[in-house]
Design a protein that fits this description.
Number of domains: 1
Structural class: mainly beta
Order of helices and strands: EEEEE
Number of strands: 5
Shape: globular
Strand content: 35-45%
Helix content: under 10%
């Protein structure tokens, strides 16, 4: 489910988050509980 280019998925003990801006670019940040990947449709799918 997405909102303003914001989508999130919970996998195991980590939450995978994709944040897109108007330019279609996302931040790549890794924190304790949140993992943010660069803008890429592949991340819409659950990691194996």
């Amino acid at each position: 489910m997405g909102l303003n280019g914001f989508s999130y998925k919970k996998n195991k003990e980590k939450i995978y988050v994709n944040i897109f801006n108007n330019a279609g670019i996302a931040l790549a940040v890794v924190s304790k509980d949140w993992v943010i990947y660069e803008a890429n449709p592949e991340f819409e799918q659950s990691p194996s």
